[in-house]
Design goal:
The structure holds two protein chains of two kinds. Chain A is mainly beta. Helices cover 4% and strands 42% of the residues of chain A. The chains are: A mainly beta, B alpha+beta.
């Protein structure tokens, strides 16, 4: 078999032989959905000139106009009565776990990114791209200030005519809780577990920045490159995105708001040894 | 209040724009980390004391539980991975019911999870992928996670008892039938069913609202399929199943018919589009 499915009563997801997501199926809608990791290489600039600063802690300034991709392989597909998972790892220190819990209306992507290898002298910025066949006409929505969701249009600003010298970074916006795109039929929302940056650089795609390791300071004040290590290796980040699919006409704001709060305020979990406490006594 | 104020103070410091965005110098980042970690460690004593009060332990006796927090973000927990039986206590800080998937790092084995009412609940032992096990800073022997779904009340506390069984290993414990994408209704006492137009055999009597519990049944579901939206599919309480001619339909007959159809055609899903 060269395809695998994760499914519950609300949702079905198709994965190809390398473990990559290809389709999402709701009971009445099927659409293409891929979740792939890429990396941008950081620009090395001339910090004495404001328009030529390096990519650093304050600014995202990629060197290329297309990100670099990775090779993937499926490394596991546990299935049971509580959760179905698909494990995928790449050749560039990225691992992801797609999870669908029994009864859940949302789909969860848990990722482990890093340590980022900079032995080639290149600083790198890792992103995830959700690629769909939705026709969003360059329109996407972000809740940049955490209070209201604003409409964003690729290569446009509502107040003035825009010519972007940096087409990638110039279309990145802050994401506090969510970013979404939609067409006439479907809305695809990505809920983040922390504030991140992202945009919709290509038709039907959502891109979110996950992890960065850069070798040059950007001259905005920190005075250090964004190059943190632990135990001699670059940092590893582990995070989670929750993907929520809905009909474009459907008002699911309350469900989404609750899901966001559940993501940010999960139950506090404590564990205690019970070696002197038998089940019957408990 | 002393330890709580320490945490409040640390959280205040973390509102600084450099702490929020990560534009602080590295030695400042380490200092922030130290301040926040110490404040969290110290203030967790409040939760530990509160939980032991809930289990009504006399003040002069040692606490029943020495609660610990684990590093779930790297799937490690020193306590659960070496213990054969432990208690997992959860506090839901939100003002509504939540269904939270709990993932507890453990060694490989067979585990049973007991809900607060003493009943064993569904749990699953899931391996930890190598890309998590190999995180350079991870110091853990845990190879698996016990996963179960905790239903928590608004701002409620619940404890679950997890016990490692001394039996042959098994990947999962199945207590309930798991409903699949194409199983939308159950047959049994107070049967509930989801209407689907393309099955002329079923005729609803009256409607009711969906409940999560309806989707989980101990009765084997019958494979049916609908290409209608889940939202437009209303669950229906049925007193009697009727066929297209209005005659009462025997449940076993319905089960046989649908099974026969599924065997002939296989489960039906929406067509994939390229």
């Amino acid at each position: 078999d060269d395809e695998t499915y994760l499914e519950n009563e609300h949702l079905k997801l198709r994965f190809d032989s390398s473990g990559l997501l290809t389709h999402a199926m709701l009971p009445d809608i099927t659409f293409n959905l891929a979740a792939q990791f890429y990396y941008w290489t950081g620009c090395v600039g001339n910090n004495t000139s404001p328009s030529e600063r390096s990519s650093g802690a304050y600014i995202f300034r990629p060197k290329t106009t297309r990100p670099f991709d990775m090779k993937y392989r499926s490394v596991g597909n546990p299935k049971g009565n509580v959760v179905h998972e698909m494990w995928v790892e790449s050749d560039k220190n990225v691992g992801s776990i797609a999870r669908l819990y029994n009864g859940s209306k949302v789909f969860e992507l848990d990722f482990v990114v890093g340590p980022i290898d900079v032995s080639d002298g290149e600083g790198k910025e890792y992103v995830i791209r959700y690629e769909t066949n939705l026709l969003n006409n360059g329109i996407f929505y972000t809740d940049s200030n955490g209070r209201q969701t604003l409409k964003r249009v690729l290569n446009k600003r509502p107040q003035w005519n825009l010519t972007l010298e940096e087409p990638i970074a110039g279309n990145y916006y802050p994401i506090t809780n969510e970013i979404y795109i939609e067409d006439n039929e479907v809305r695809v929302s990505i809920l983040t577990d922390r504030s991140q940056g992202g945009g919709s650089l290509e038709e039907g795609a959502i891109e979110v920045m996950l992890h960065r390791r850069l070798l040059h300071d950007d001259a905005f004040g920190v005075g250090e490159a964004l190059n943190e290590t632990a135990k001699g290796a670059g940092l590893v980040m582990r995070g989670k995105h929750v993907l929520l699919f809905s009909n474009a006409s459907e008002n699911n704001d309350e469900f989404k708001a609750k899901t966001i709060l559940e993501l940010h305020l999960p139950p506090v979990v404590f564990v205690a040894d019970a070696k002197h406490l038998q089940y019957e006594e408990w | 209040m002393f330890v709580l104020n320490e945490l409040k103070s640390a959280m205040g410091m973390m509102q600084h724009h450099d702490a929020v965005t990560g534009t602080e110098k590295q030695h400042v980042a380490h200092d922030y980390e130290r301040i926040l970690h110490e404040a969290l460690e110290d203030s967790s004593i409040i939760a530990k004391q509160a939980f032991n009060k809930i289990v009504q332990r006399d003040g002069d006796k040692p606490p029943l539980f020495q609660y610990e927090r684990c590093s779930f973000n790297e799937s490690s927990c020193d306590l659960t991975e070496r213990s054969d039986q432990f208690v997992v206590t959860l506090y839901n800080p939100l003002g509504w019911k939540v269904k939270y998937p709990v993932r507890v790092p453990v060694m490989e084995g067979t585990y049973t999870v007991y809900a607060p009412n003493g009943e064993a609940i569904d749990s699953q032992l899931v391996g930890i992928p190598d890309f998590v096990k190999n995180i350079p800073t991870r110091e853990s022997n845990a190879t698996h996670e016990v996963v179960f779904l905790a239903h928590l009340h608004p701002m409620g506390v619940k404890s679950f008892y997890v016990k490692r069984e001394k039996k042959e290993k098994r990947e999962s414990k199945m207590n309930d039938y798991y409903l699949h994408f194409n199983d939308y209704f159950k047959i049994g006492d107070n049967a509930k069913m989801v209407e689907f137009e393309n099955n002329p055999m079923l005729k609803p009597v009256f409607k009711s609202n969906y409940e999560d519990n309806d989707l989980k049944t101990k009765e084997p579901g019958i494979g049916v399929n609908s290409e209608k939206s889940m939202n437009s599919m209303k669950p229906i309480d049925i007193d009697v199943l009727k066929d297209k001619d209005g005659d009462n339909l025997d449940i076993e007959e319905l089960r046989r018919l649908v099974d026969e159809r599924d065997r002939a055609t296989g489960p039906k899903f929406p067509e994939l589009s390229d």
